[in-house]
Specification:
The protein is mainly beta. It is built from 1 helix and 16 strands. A hairpin with a 4-residue loop joins strand 10 (218-230) and strand 11 (235-247).
Amino acid sequence: MKHITMSILLWFPFLSFACDNCNVYLNLSPNDYKNSIGIFMRHREMYGEYNLLGEMITTRHAGHGNDMAFWGEKVVEKYFTYELRGSFYIREKWKTSVILPMVNNLQQIGDYRRYNITGIGDPIIMESYQVFNTKQDALSGALKQRLSIGAGLKFPLGKTNLEYTNGIPNLDLQPGTGSWDALVFIAYTVKWKFAGITANVNHKRNGLDAEDYRYGAVTNGTLNLFSDLSFKRFKVRLSTGVYIEHAQMDETALYSNELPFKHYDTGGTVLFGNGKIQVFTDHFTAFLEYQTPLKNSLNGYTQLLTKNKINTGIIYTF
């Protein structure tokens, strides 16, 4: 009971809404049905401002900040994830994807950089099945559709107990999450001539870590309209749309016959606007995506807000 109580006291004040630490980015492209190796970078910037009483005064999220180091300060957290990804078709409709992440997370309070955390993150293995695929080049003229479903597993390889002279960073800032997590997703693309729609939904169920703490289940969805431009040696796809993140409240398990302890200052929903450009050659795909929040609906009063998200990468297909 002692370690459970301490877990509640330690984690409750510091956890924020950081879905990048507990989810996976799905990049849909015309070359998804080819083998590929790529390097991805994901960045998320979060911020908040507190008065001298510890009240969050950024936008409408007012309340009492529990981290006393935040009081009377502006707080910025930056999450960088660098991923080596490989996707391979063992059979015609089955694709195996492996994601190996390295993270660099920063926390700054006023002009003072409190933490700069670097480490190996939690790897993910995903298996997807193409329900149907017209197989034509997705940048040519006829009507094309692709539908894929899949599932994945995240392994707790990243560290969750890194310590620094300034203290112990909270779990969001640590390289790993300490839990085995399951992921399912569905992705759909339809195109007519030079325009089309891409959509995907993924859901992640997080397990318990060594301290019986569980991140809330996360559901993300993207809906983009796109248009393709053809040039002599390459092709360009321009996309715009919306992206939504919804996370349930985190919880701490108590006893097997008791309901878990809910952390009411965690979880919520964020709606983003998307802008994306992709460039395709015969063997390479490069992309850059910018996401800006349109609406934050977070639980409680102490969570930092997302300022923006950036996703970019380069992929070699063969």
